[in-house]
From TrEMBL:
Organism: marine metagenome
Gene3D superfamilies in alphabetical order: 3.40.50.12370
UniProt name for this protein: UspA domain-containing protein
Top-level taxonomy: unclassified sequences, metagenomes, ecological metagenomes
Amino acid sequence: SRWLLGSITNKVLHATKVPLLVVRASEGEDTTPPSELTSIIVRLDGSTLAEESLSHVTDLARK
């Protein structure tokens, strides 16, 4: 997996204790991040922990 994703991504994937989705860009695809986010989608499961994540998402949206 390190060859496909890179060593840092590999370390993060193995160290995290939460679900994480990593999508690798296609070869030749522009990987420059957009200058600003236009939308953020948050999936909640009704748990207290999920609700607590909203403050972090709000902070991210304000940046």
